[in-house]
Design brief:
22% of the residues lie in helices and 35% in strands. It is an alpha/beta fold. Strand 5 (113-118) and strand 6 form a beta hairpin.
Length: 145
């Protein structure tokens, strides 16, 4: 096959996360260890402006459940100031930063990127992003700036 007829591979989606936002998500994960933390990331025109900590109502250590009232109150405040929900984040205190079956089952925002902060190696936290649409997981490149 010639170069002219080769089909280019699609560009991988990328989310640029300011270092201060990454630090806030990692701090939130550490603050809630051994439980999972959860929150949302807001932004304008695709640029992240803030991470908002939300309450995890799940009592266990391997799941999160956002307080629905708190989530929608925060979501509408973000929308009312002309920004958007860009990402939903949570932590995996002792496992890798990859969506679990539960994460996939409860991924209700197809337009959002799902950020997972792993503390599997506490000295070297990992932040990865994913689109989860109709049960399909696609990794999003996370660039820390």
């Amino acid at each position: 096959m010639s170069e002219a007829s080769a089909t280019p591979s699609p560009a991988r989606e990328r989310l640029i996360v300011p270092a201060a936002i990454q630090a806030e998500i990692v701090a939130h994960a550490r603050d809630h260890f051994p439980r999972e933390c959860c929150g949302i990331v807001a932004g304008k025109d695709g640029a992240i402006t803030e991470a908002v900590r939300l309450t995890n109502l799940e009592a266990g250590v391997s799941r999160y459940l956002m307080d629905e009232e708190e989530f929608f109150r925060t979501y509408w405040a973000i929308e009312n100031r002309g920004e958007s929900l860009l990402a939903v984040y949570h932590s995996h205190p002792v496992t890798v930063a990859y969506p679990s079956q539960t994460d996939v089952a409860f991924a209700f925002w197809p337009e959002a990127i799902y950020l997972i902060c792993s503390l599997e190696h506490p000295e070297a936290p990992v932040l990865r992003g994913f689109r989860i649409v109709d049960g399909t997981i696609t990794e999003v490149e996370v660039e820390i700036a």
